[in-house]
Design brief:
Blueprint lengths: L2 H36 L4 H16 L2 H14 L6 H26 L3 H9 L4 H31 L11 H12 L2 H32 L2
Length: about 210
């Protein structure tokens, strides 16, 4: 593959990486709110959190992307395809990350919470100093795994016209009639992105453990 076509694939990989990174970060923030709703005392909030998770985990991501891409213009909201793709990815990963975080909070040993209460820590301090740090440490591997899944699932944004890595490889394959070369290179770039993501997650996990 010549340098020009490889450069195009690198640009597509950059778009894939950017979409995945931003959607995972936004999804983490939204997922934390959904998790809080699921664990709240008011029944209405718990019902909202459960409904959100059930909907976005139960509907295929491709259907969500196509719905958002076609629904927003119908509502008079004209946004670029990139924004529609980002919204779809964020809403989807938020549902999964909410469940991951909920599992992390439920895995915090009750004895540690009781110990905090015995030394006079307020509920807010117990949350900030015990529950949140431990929940993050427990869920980090699962969050990294979810980020890997979103990175791979982001290939679906090609159906809404985003020139990501998959779409770029498709365009190159159709224009050069060399699909094996185009998709083999795309595969290598996906593997490289995943390796960076997994390596970064492992490094962060080790720092969190040593920083106890």
């Amino acid at each position: 593959m010549n340098a020009t076509l490889f450069t195009l694939l690198l640009e597509g990989a950059a778009i894939t990486a950017a979409l995945s990174t931003v959607s995972v970060l936004l999804g983490f923030a939204l997922g934390a709110l959904v998790c809080a709703a699921q664990m709240a005392r008011p029944r209405a909030l718990r019902a909202f959190g459960a409904t959100y998770v059930s909907f976005f985990r139960g509907v295929p991501l491709l259907v969500q992307l196509l719905l958002i891409y076609n629904l927003l213009p119908g509502l008079g909201i004209n946004v670029p395809g990139t924004v529609a793709a980002l919204v779809g990815l964020t809403l989807c990963t938020a549902a999964y990350q909410a469940e991951i975080l909920r599992g992390g909070f439920q895995s915090v040993p009750p004895g540690l919470i009781e110990a905090g209460q015995m030394v006079g820590l307020s509920p807010a301090l117990i949350l900030l100093r015990i529950r949140i740090p431990l929940a993050l440490r427990l869920t980090l591997p699962s969050v990294v795994n979810e980020a890997v899944l979103i990175l791979k699932a982001s290939s679906l944004v090609s159906v809404v016209g985003i020139a990501d890595l998959t779409r770029t490889a498709q365009n190159i394959a159709s224009s050069t009639y060399r699909p094996i070369e185009a998709f083999a290179t795309a595969r290598a770039l996906y593997l490289a992105l995943n390796a960076v993501l997994i390596g970064g997650g492992g490094l962060l996990s080790r720092r969190m453990v040593h920083g106890r």
